[in-house]
Amino acid sequence: MFGGYLRRLGCRLRPYENAKGSTDAVVEKSLKILEEAFGGKRSKEGALEETVALFEAVETTFREKPKAAIFGDLYARDNPRINQDLIHFIEENGWEVITTPYSAYLKMIAPTYLRKWWVEGHYWDALFSKALIAGLRLQERAYYRYFNRILDEPEPVYDDPPAKILSEYGIRIENTGESMDNILKIHYIKKHHPEVALFVQTSPAFCCPALVTEAMAWKIEKKTGVPIVSITYDGTGGIKNDAILPYLKYPRTFPIRDGSGLNLKLPDFA
Question: CA angle, corner 127, sides to 126 and 133, nearest 5?
């Protein structure tokens, strides 16, 4: 949870910082503070209080920017060495990035796996995992309030019937794996961030779930109204992130939030 939300805070502020590099400096300092907390040298609450205070001190000027959500293989998604610093690449082209903390990812996919284990007779695994997830949710509520001082978002709920979500893409609830996970992730990103204007899927070479998801791209775009582009980091060299440059430089109209809800706006990168 902590690492995922620390990344979210950085992505929330970095595109709007007045002094370039100030957010990254806070992220690095916050990592050291949280390392001390997990090492037992200080309380987690105290570490979070200090960390969030550092983010609150970052001077920003907010204006509407289109938002891109990154999903896909976890190693490619969250490792800047593998994905050629994708987050900064998107931000430098005038966008804000939406990332998914691991704790949120767990809550999105847990119901389908718990049901599968129960049906297959793995009762102990299902019961133990359900109890563990319930405990994690209680802990998360205690810590989320710190991060939400920056995010300023309602705590997301992931309780839509997974069978209904998956059926719209021709997937049965008995199916499991990364392709199913991606559909659930896309559903909830669009639900909680209706202003998202681009989905970016990251994957290593020969990633079968990524190929399956890519094959569903037309259906995802038709249902969500959001274009989806895939990047494969195959280790052959070259600048892979250039594949999304046309989407970043020449986006469609993108939705923004205002008092009346969501309205369409043409991008302005001036």
Answer: 90
Q: Domain residue spans in the chain?
A: 65-265
pLDDT at site 229 = 94
> What is the reported pTM?
0.87
Tens digit of each residue's pLDDT (9 = 90 or more) over 175-188? 788 889 999 999 99
What tokens were used for 72? 């896909």
How many C-beta atoms surround the C-beta of residue 12 within 10 A?
23
> What does 204-263 look like in DSSP terms, one character per residue?
ETT-HHHHHHHHTHHHHHHHHS--EEEEEE-SS-S-GGGGGHHHHHS---EEEEETTEEE
* 8 A C-beta contact, residue 101 and residue 8: yes
Q: Which helix H or strand E contains 57, and what residues bound it?
A: none
Exposed/middle/buried for residue 138 (C-beta within 10 Å: 0-12, 13-18, 19+): exposed
| Amino acid at the residue 12 | R
Over residues 226-236, mean pLDDT: 90
Please tell me the predicted confidence (pLDDT) of residue 111.
87
CA distance 17 to 40: 32
The separation between the first and the last C-alpha atoms of the chain, rounded to the nearest angstrom, is 35
**Cα separation, 203 vs 180, whole angstroms:** 15
Distance CA 106, CA 29 (A): 27
Query: How many Cα atoms are found within 13 Å in the side-chain-facing hemisphere of 183?
Result: 30
Closest CA to 33 of 62, 12, 11, 9: 9
